[in-house]
Amino acid sequence: MKDLKGKVALVTGAAMGMGRSLSEDLLREGCSVILVDVNQQELSKTLADLLKIGKCASYICDISDRKAVYQLASQVEKKFGQVDILVNNAGIVKALELLDLPDDAIEKTININLTAQFWTCKAFLPAMIKKGQGHIVNFASAGGILALPNLSAYCASKFGVVGFSDALRQEMKKHKYNIGVTYVCPNTVNTGMFEGSKNGCRYQDAFRLRCDQKSDQGH
User: Cα–Cα distance between 56 and 23 in angstroms, integer?
Assistant: First the structure.
């Protein structure tokens, strides 16, 4: 999808960081943008700023709640029509060794980073198929390609995003639907997501070290 003018895009985790930046870029490309987040205060600030650039609206939604996501899809379609671009950007991380990682933190990480993408895709994909075009962008991570200690739940969720996206892309190809599926694996970015992490070393440095080790081992 090269021409974005007039398209409707929905971005999860849009209140801050990469989600906000992506939403701004989409607006500048001529999209109408649906901003979705659970942080009402930051989302209101972002909406106020981005309305100066283009047409956008905000919705509070816990994307790990399947029923809430399906309700969101219904509300968005009634107001904006069918979504052309779905950006699954929302994600969380808690850096601890497995035996120190609380059970609820494991569940929350998997639910938000991975399972929620199943719900959003199931909610918005049917309209794309009906329209005959669309694009889904799923955010994984460098940690979805190369695992690191102290990030077991995070890496597992992001490895899952890579597998889910590949499988979904093959399904779209099998049916010859004109719908693209892209997964993105950024390294660390200065969005505050890893701020306060108790990891033994900075994630970016650790990722580079692991890459070097893989290279030395001939993998």
Answer: 9
